[in-house]
């Protein structure tokens, strides 16, 4: 009797193709989205100088990055630091502008300045005794709100979003995270727990 190989059914073939499609999407989507975001940022920054000064793509981007590095380098010297401090003081005292300027300045300093705030990752018990969320201890002094020394401020970022929530709660409802760095905890949180730490 002839030995016939069982032909894969059409349904099985479609399932395999769909599985391969999903696997390909999982591999390509992060690369494509990251490349697209980088392209948008590059094109936007490059376009700031291109119409006025240069027509060669990329030159404006390089000049702006070099200018930012130059300002950072010069700010470490006394005279330039004094000039920058003067403008900083002036912008913080100008009505209307001060609100926008100070909020943006504090935001950037919280992530990368001398006053980094997201350095203490904690587990936070907010909604229920059995529910814990990852946050960052940002303020250990709630006297300004007449809430005493037993209360702290914890910022909880949202997954796949640039938003977050600030909670003020008792110290006993937070636990320090000791097995992860602040950066690893942030990555874990904003990716909804799917990123490997």
Q: Give the DSSP E fraction (strand runs of 2 or more residues).
A: 5-15%
Shape: flat
Which residues form runs of ≥5 with pLDDT under 50?
Answer: none
Strand element count: 5
Strand order in the largest sheet: 4-3-2-1-5
Q: Describe the sheet with the most strands.
A: 5 strands, antiparallel
Summarize the structure.
This protein has 197 residues and is an alpha+beta fold. It is built from five helices and five strands.
Any descriptors?
five-stranded antiparallel β-sheet; 5 strands; membrane; 197 residues; transmembrane helix; transmembrane; DUF502 domain-containing protein; COV1-like
Could you please describe the fold and organization of this structure?
The structure is a single chain. The chain is an alpha+beta fold and 197 residues long. Helices cover 49% and strands 14% of the residues. It is built from 5 helices and 5 strands, in the order H-H-H-H-E-E-E-E-E-H. The protein has helices at residues 10-49, 59-74, 78-93, 97-112, 182-190; strands spanning 121-124, 133-139, 151-157, 164-170, 174-176. It has a 5-stranded antiparallel β-sheet with strand order 4-3-2-1-5, covered by helices on one side. A hairpin with a 6-residue loop joins strand 3 (151-157) and strand 4 (164-170). Helix 1 (10-49) crosses helix 2 (59-74). The protein is flat.
